[in-house]
Task: structure prediction
Amino acid sequence: MHKMLSHGKVIDNSWTLVAADVPTTDNLPTGDILVPLALWCGQHSVLKNHIGAVGVWLDSHEEIETLTGYLDQLPVVAINFPKFVDGRGFSSARLLRDRYHYQGEIRAIGSFIRDQLFLMQRCGFSQFSFSDEIDLQAATASLSDFSDGYQTAADQAEPLFKRLR
Amino acid sequence: MYIYDQYDQKLVDERVAQYRDQTNRYLDGQISDEEFLPIRLQNGLYVQRLAPMLRIAIPYGLISSRQLRALANISRRFDKGYVHFTTRQNIQLNWPRLEEVPDILAELAKVQMHAIQTSGNCIRNTTTDQFAGVAVDEIEDPRPWCEIIRQWSTIHPEFAFLPRKFKIAVCGSEEDRAAFLLHDIGIQLVKNSNGESGFHIYAGGGLGRTPVIASSIREYLPRQHLLSYLDAILRVYNRYGNRDNKYKARIKILVKAWTPEVFAQRVEAEWQQIISSDGGVNSELTENEVNRVKGFFTQPDYEPVDMLKVEAGLKAQATDNLAFSRWLQRNVRDQKQPGYASVSLSLKPAGVAPGDVTDGQLESIADLAERFSNGEVRSTHNQNVVIADVLKSALFDFWQQAKVHGLATPTIGTINDMICCPGGDYCSLANAKSIPVAEAIQRRFDDLDYVYDLGDLELNISGCMNACGHHHVGHIGILGVDKKGEEWYQIQLGGSASKQAALAKVLGPSLSRDEVVEGIEKIIDVYVENRLEGEAFLQTYQRVGMNKFKERVYAQNA
Ligand code: SF4
Result:
């Protein structure tokens, strides 16, 4: 089974990703699934009957605001990085946490890289499902590249100057 | 100047450790070239035409004598014994080895320096006026605000992968010496009608392929909200800036596409949400923090000075010594503190690439700053350095010392004080060489009396459209272009980086390398023949118009 990082630990990844171009719920895989935003928006009442957990994944250009009415139904919101240098997902995660107070898992999927983990975690990502096979245990080191940061972020309500100076 | 506390130091140390590990993993094949690219860029490392190039941050252009000596050491130990001052007030090493960069960064961290975010698609070094704190026309010292912005932007979790690079400048005076309207965000310190200080915020300025002067997006921002408002601008840009075409990815394109009004509304809406519902109100600046940072930018204890005596002494020295009087005239500025002056050390002697200094000169600058000032030096966007707070009565001594080390070239603000990017000699993006053009112009205009007579004249040279040499805002701009594999030069006239910012216009068809200097000479001739009493080049150009210049440069030889 695939593995991923969740809250700093290597765990099994039981989720199946449903591709962006799947238009209907007809032939969905069984078990836990991550469906694309459009499918969720069109079919969320049908998806309620799915056996297994259902989460949603967004691409980097898709607006997190579309999901705000559904957040309490979603155990996972995954954010795709089509390229690791596409930084829009960082803002999506922060909005989910800071503005919409989303409590579930925010999972990074796609082409992000290990060296972004510290920043992503600060923006509110809690899970990391890499598309490449990498040494996940070793990658956990990148979560603690820095011991603190100057700014407020999803993981820190107060800036450094208010806490420590 | 700002001194790191344990938290600042730890962050920089951790960054060195992070990058050392990344370099090791790269050399080990665990990180691909593509993945390593933004990592190394955000640690200052470019790969240039001939070798890697390391850009080291000088936050808002302020550097201490101790730091200059450390740089001199680094340039000896890891490079070829010289460094280059850039137009962004930073410093570049031209020949570091990729494997040794983590060691260089570790050496820098020992003197509270770094190369974080000096390159790449992230928030870059915040720049300001080289005369901050001492300028006669200053409203408020911009440097504490630059430092507050530096900390906020350093390893900002949300904005490390922007569509494109992002530059912020702060202006605290009447006259603009920071070219703040040519930045992604330009911040002007202002007072509102109640006398409270805050910021006038501009966005969407920049040079490069599509030069644009920034638009006002908020006339008054109360100062405590600076960071949440910057977050709002950056978030709007991060989400909606163009990521498909790197030539359309700067914020200026977004501001233009949406119109400044709509852009301002989007930022305002985002900001309101940040402070009302996101907990952004927590990042409100406290008086405590602002005062803490301001406390680092104190003035030295100025001695009371007998002004009459000092001025009389200077006058006598100047009368006796023409060279000294020229230097006084071009390189020395009054300060708001009577009896003190700010001295510009020129890094543009003829025959040296503009902005280049040797290790020994770095140490001499450090010595001068300690002996005649408070051990602080300012780098300028014109690629010179400034030592402020020099007693006027010590200027003659200062000049003699500076001369010994080749730092007293008396041409600040003249045609020979050109801004010039590294160009085709170093830069892999260049269309044409720029340094030899600068040198050829300096050689042609080698008669100092004539150069003085020409007065204030900004000549800026870029080796390609990326405009690192700010050619769009030179009174005379020269842009390297590629014509069928040959190096040609487009001449532009009438630009200005002042508060009345103007973008230069193209004179006409490009000139070959052989024709450039002659072309510049003809342009200068037209100025000299047409100027009115006391009129500087730019004013004459604005009065007589482009055509007169054009006719002369392109006249067929009879
Ligand atoms: S203007 Fe062009 S040639 Fe000059 S340094 Fe910038 S990128 Fe290189």
